[in-house]
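Batch manifest line 323
LIGAND: S-adenosylmethionine
JOB: complex structure
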Amino acid sequence: MTLTNDAWTPSSPTAAPSVGWDLRVGDAWDLSAHIESASIDLVLTSPPYWGLRTYGLDHNEGVLDAWTATGNNPKSAPPYEWYRDNGGVLGLEPYPDWFVAHLVEIFRRIKNAMKPDANLWVNLGDTYFGRWSSIRDEGRQGLGKGERSRRRTPSGGVLHDKQLLMVPARFALAMQEDGWILRNDLVWSKPHVAPRPERDRLRLSHEHFFHFVSRSKVGRPAYYYDLDGVEPGALDVVTASPDRGDSAHSATFPMELVLPRVRSSSPPGGVVLDPFCGTGTTLVAALSEHRRAIGFELSEKFAGIARSRIEEIGILADAEVHS
Ligand SMILES: C[S@@+](CC[C@H](N)C(=O)[O-])C[C@H]1O[C@@H](n2cnc3c(N)ncnc32)[C@H](O)[C@@H]1O
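JOB STATUS: finished
ARTIFACT:
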């Protein structure tokens, strides 16, 4: 049985799978509202980055005008639900600060589903500002094979041509302000990156993988962690090549980066959630480490690839186990 969004209505809150996995097609914002509270041991994910890809989604470039038309300050981010309902796509916000605010809002909602001793790992890469920036369905900014669209991005303040925006740092600070405790800023170093045409800067060859936990009601934060599960040396810089695969998804993160996070940050048999699961790397890693897994993905195409990858390792979906 293939699970679809139809099977998951607000009146049927989803419990964590008891043995296998569960994959839903839809917006992480909507779907995360219906997970049983305090049921998740680990959230491990890589959301869309700011201003790089469309993932084949239609974005309303007039969303900023729609927001200001009713007297709103352009610098104050609309709630994610308003933005989405007005045609906005996560990652294509006119301002990086809107994007950061939306991610914080989504992770705040996901926090309700996390156990008090759960872990959250978020992988995020950075973007250079350009008033006329290139966006592709699946390729990187300014490079890549796919069709390129140009969009005019509002400038002013720090939003200046050639500026490295420090989006991951802005996100981490905003999450701290929202009550999360930041435990690690793991740097994912990529040994091989595509050539760049610029002659006036170094090539960007790292991304961030932030580890957050919840505050305790009293005393210091206490959360599940098994240091024996991490890489030899337990360092916060990990070198790994991006997974190229044959999955038609250009932003998959490498299994060798994900597996140590699953092993160290969730108990055996625990439940791992990836709310932006793409082709399902997190789910495959979790299941192969004998954890249970839940994935959300907006694109039916990527969710289909994720399902096939999981089926390849021969683990049944929870619905199949119980039918
Ligand atoms: C960086 S990719 C994740 C790739 C994944 N880690 C993998 O290994 O395949 C981000 C994914 O989030 C999906 N996405 C974008 N907006 C979403 C939303 N609002 N809700 C759920 N998924 C979304 C995109 O389609 C994309 O597949």
